Amino acid sequence: MKKLASKHKLNFVDSELEILKEKNLYREMRYGISKGSKITINNSQLLNLCSNDYLGIPVTKIQIKQLQSSSRLVSGNDESYKKLEDVLAKHKSQQSSLIYPTGYMANLGAISAIAKKGDLILSDELNHASIIESCKLSDAKVSIYKHNDMTDMNKKLKQKGRNKFIITEGIFSMDGDLSSLKQITEISEKSDAITIVDDAHGDFVIGNDGKGTPEYFNVSKKVDLYVSSLSKGLGSFGGYIASQSNVVDLCINKSKSFIYTSALPSFLVEYSFKRFESDRERQKKKLEKNTKQIIKGLKEIGYEINSHSQIIPIIIGNEKTAMDFGKFLFDNGVYAQPIRFPTVPKNKARLRISVTAWLSGREIEKTLNIFEKAYSKFHS
Ligand SMILES: Cc1ncc(COP(=O)(O)O)c(C=O)c1O
């Protein structure tokens, strides 16, 4: 193939990439084929410890119909949406729900629709990039409180704002710890703040009937707006919000990431519905058992583990060591991604293990053996 000449005016791109490489922050994509607990990359079959398909619901068959190829407000609003939105609203004990193409777009669309200039948003310092971006889009004043720190939150809530919002994740995506939702909802009630919970990682996974982190803390009804993903616990694709009907109506009318984009293909909506209706409880129990086994095993090896959820970070610190750690695991048949800045703060690089119900007891034992070898190599 003829090599295209590089354009001089784009030379700065090379410099930017070079800087990322020098700082060990360069990211590369790998092509992989996932099947159950395994992933095949470059002809190597590895145990997959970085999938967000936490429940590992067995493959669901759906029929692919003609795509609607339009925004939902035009002709893309297939009937399957209503069926799924009704069950999701009930699942969250809310009046209504609205599906977006992704969880990322749900945050962008909903938060920027409900908060505006003159409002005050309190956001946890470890909140996901989609929350950070959506806060910026809203034009509200954004005040970042220390991670899960209620004293700092209370202090920052004293600032002026027409409407005040507190936004937190349910299970934090890179640390696996749970947000202090009992205290947060109490503070919200006292100060009349609106509570928004992004439960992308807790939804379908914890709480009675997989209703998520607020249900786990028994505060479901006190959350004003839920944001979640269908691409993690449920192992499908898409995002959604759930709230009272007028909030959903406002989002239909104001969310740019809802109005100005094509609808999620209806076969994915049906796929989510089928998976929602499957035996999630059995998978949830399996996930809980696997999580306990991995946490116990890692602690016995000597790793410092503070997570109780299916997201288990092993904090390494230095970016280069985290990359080397990941490579060692890869070479020994385990796929777990090193996570670096800007996803986590600088010098807080980590291996993020995500447990799924796909893993068998034997596969977990094998994984732990490899982590034991890694411990001797990287912790001496
Ligand atoms: C906390 C949180 N919110 C939202 C998202 C975005 O979800 P989706 O993958 O459906 O876009 C993610 C995904 O990584 C997440 O971790």
Notes on the structure:
- The chain is of the alpha/beta class.
- It has two domains: 29-57 and 280-378, Alpha-Beta Complex (Aspartate Aminotransferase, domain 1), CATH 3.90.1150.10; 79-276, Aspartate Aminotransferase, domain 2 (3-Layer(aba) Sandwich).
- It contains 13 helices and 14 strands.
- The strands form three sheets. The protein has a seven-stranded mixed beta sheet, with helices on both faces. The protein has a four-stranded mixed beta sheet with strand order 1-2-3-12. Strands 11-14-13 form a three-stranded antiparallel beta sheet, covered by helices on one side.
- Helix 2 packs parallel to helix 10 (266-276) and helix 3 packs parallel to helix 4.
- It is globular and about 55 Å long.
- The N and C termini lie far apart (49 Å).
- The mean pLDDT is 96.
- Pyridoxal-5'-phosphate binds at residues 102-104, 107, 128, 130, 169, 173, 198, 200, 229, 231, 239.
Report the span from N to C terminus.
49 Å
Q: How many DSSP helices?
A: 13
Order of helices and strands: HEEEHEHEHEHEHEHEEHHHHEHEEEH
The small molecules bound here are: pyridoxal-5'-phosphate
Briefly, what CATH class of the largest domain?
Alpha Beta
CATH third-level topology of the largest domain: Aspartate Aminotransferase, domain 2
CATH superfamily of the largest domain: Type I PLP-dependent aspartate aminotransferase-like (Major domain)
Radius of gyration over alpha carbons? 21 Å
Main sheet: which strands, in order across? Answer: 4-10-9-8-7-5-6
Assign an overall shape. globular
Q: What is the residue-mean pLDDT, rounded to a whole number?
A: 96
CATH architecture of the largest domain: 3-Layer(aba) Sandwich
- Give the number of DSSP strands: 14
* Total of domains: 2
The level of helicity is 25-40%
What portion of residues belong to β-strands? 15-25%
Low-confidence segments, given as residue ranges, are none
InterPro entries: Aminotransferase_I/II_large, AON_synthase_class-II, PyrdxlP-dep_Trfase, PyrdxlP-dep_Trfase_major, PyrdxlP-dep_Trfase_small
Pfam families: Aminotran_1_2
Cofactor: pyridoxal 5'-phosphate
Keywords: Pyridoxal phosphate, Transferase
